[in-house]
Amino acid sequence: MTHVLKLENLEVVYNDVVLVLKGLSLAAAEGRITALLGANGAGKSTTLKAISGLLESEDGEVTAGSVLYRGRPVQGLPPERVVRMGVFQVMEGRRIFEDLSVEENLRCGAFVSPRAEYAANLDKVYGYFPRLKERRGQLAGYMSGGEQQMLAIGRAIMAKPKLLLLDEPSLGLAPLLVEEIFEIVQMINQKEGVTVLLVEQNARAALNVAEHGYIMENGRIVMEGPARDLLQNPDIQEFYLGMGHAGAKKSYREVKHYRRRKRWLG
Ligand SMILES: Nc1ncnc2c1ncn2[C@@H]1O[C@H](COP(=O)(O)OP(=O)(O)OP(=O)(O)O)[C@@H](O)[C@H]1O
Ligand SMILES: [Mg+2]
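Above: the input entities. Below: the C-alpha cells describing the complete assembly.
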C-alpha cells in the first residue's frame, strides 16, 4: 500500500510560543479515506493547515518534523504551490464567497485545472450535487448550511485534487444531511480515486466511511487502527461514540466532560 501523505514527528508552533502539534505522525493511504478524530482543540485543523500551507497566514510554523507528499517535503511551501501539486483543503465552517453565485464559487475552484476541462468538471460537480445545479444562479450566502457545505466540497472537486483535506464537513448539519454528505464523499473517493484525509468530531460518521482512523489528543496521535476496529473499541465507543458500557447513550455534556478528563496516554 502506498502512502500518499506522511506526517513525521510534526511540531507546530503559533506566534513563536504556543506549541500545538507535539510530534504528530500519521499517514494516508493512496485512494483511501483516512479519518483524523479528536475533541475540540486537539489540533486537527492545525494538522490540515500544516499540510496545505495555510499555517503561515495564521502566524503558525512547522518547527520540527516533516510533511511528505508523494515523498516530497511540502512543509513551508506557499499554499498555491501545494494546491498545484493536487492537495486541496476544504476549510472548517464552509468558507464560501457569500456575495458570489453558486456557479461563480465553483469557478473559483477551477483556477488550477485546465480551462478546457471546466465544463466537464462543472457537470461532474452538478452530478454529485444536483441541488447546486438547481441553485446555480443563487447567491451562495443565501444557501442553507448543508448546501454551503456541498458548495465548499464542489469547489474543491473543480480543482481536481488528488488529495482532499476535509475539515469537519458535518459541522452543524442535521443527521440526515451528515449521512448524505458522507455518502457523497465516499462516492467522490471511489469514482475519482481521490485520497481523502477527513477531520471530524463526528467519529461514527467518519469511521463508517473511512478505512483507517487516527485519534488525536493534545497535539499527538494517541490511537490508530482500521476504522472497523476503532468502531468496536470500548474506549472509543465510550468517549467518542457516546456509548456507555451498559449501552446507554450518554448526554453530550457528560461525554464532553469525559473528553476533557480522559487521557489515552498517561
Ligand atoms: N491561529 C492561531 N493562533 C494561536 N493559536 C491557535 C491558532 N489556531 C489554533 N490555535 C490553538 O491551537 C490549538 C488547536 O487548535 P485547532 O484549531 O487545530 O484544533 P481542532 O482540533 O481543529 O479543534 P476544533 O474541533 O474545535 O476545530 C487550540 O488550542 C487553539 O487555540
Ligand atoms: Mg478544527
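Note for the figure: Residues 106 and 155 are 5 Å apart (CA to CA).
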